[in-house]
Amino acid sequence: MQKIIFQQEGGLVALITPTGDLPFEEVCRKDVPAGAPYLVIDESDVPEDWSFRNAWEADFSNPDGYGIGADAWFAQQEASE
User: Fold this and answer.
1) What is the pTM of this model?
2) 1/65 Cα distance (integer angstroms)
3) Which of these, 4, 29, 49, 60, has the minimum number of CB atoms within 10 Å of its CB?
């Protein structure tokens, strides 16, 4: 299973687990904040030890894409109806 990670303000790495309700690419666009780079990773790459979650690091210099955020995503959905 694939997961999405992005860096939050303050440097913490956030993890998104898609539910399958939306296509994976749409989850990336909607749930990653506007302009934030994200990476798609395999579930096996997520550290098992969550006690050091605040110490997780990732290199976002070559992202898989950039989020547009929920507001812009919903506006696009409305405009396309």
Assistant:
1) 0.90
2) 18
3) 49
In a domain, 76, yes or no: yes
Residue 60: CB partners within 8 Å, gap ≥ 6?
Answer: 6, 7, 37, 38, 39
In a domain, 58, yes or no: no
Looking at the 3D structure of the chain, how many domains does it have? 1
Q: Examine residue 59 and state whether it is found in any structural domain, yes or no.
A: no
Sheet of 65-66: strands edge to edge?
13-16, 2-7, 37-42, 65-66
Domain with 72 in it: 2-46+64-80
As a whole number of angstroms, the distance between CA 67 and CA 73 comes to 9
Which tops the pLDDT comparison, 39 or 12? 39
